[in-house]
Write a structure and sequence with these properties.
By secondary structure, this protein is mainly beta. Helices cover 10% and strands 33% of the residues. Strands 1, 2, 3, 4, 5 and 6 form a six-stranded mixed beta sheet that branches. The radius of gyration is 13 Å and the shape is globular.
């Protein structure tokens, strides 16, 4: 896939790519494919790229077939408040 248009995380200002998930939600992903990514992204002419978060067999199959996968930004955002586990 060619380079995706960058944006920025409003909390930490790290460059991200904003994608519209198939669910209609916006999701910030890494600007480059990652070996541990779980989001498949495809460009749409003149629109926000479309994305789908993969899991289970779909994720395994995508990795097996060397599909470019991008990492979700939110779980690793340095400005994200620490999670409290009870």
């Amino acid at each position: 896939m060619s380079a995706l248009p960058p944006g920025y995380c409003p909390a930490c200002r790290i460059p991200v790519v904003w994608t519209e998930l198939v669910t209609g939600e916006l999701c910030a992903v890494s600007i480059a494919a990652q070996a541990d990514g779980d989001v498949t992204v495809w460009p749409r002419s003149g629109q926000v790229p479309r994305g789908r978060i993969l899991a289970g067999d779909d994720l395994t199959e995508a990795r097996k077939n060397a599909v470019s996968l991008y990492g979700q930004h939110y779980p690793t955002c340095p400005a994200r408040p620490p999670q409290v586990h009870s």
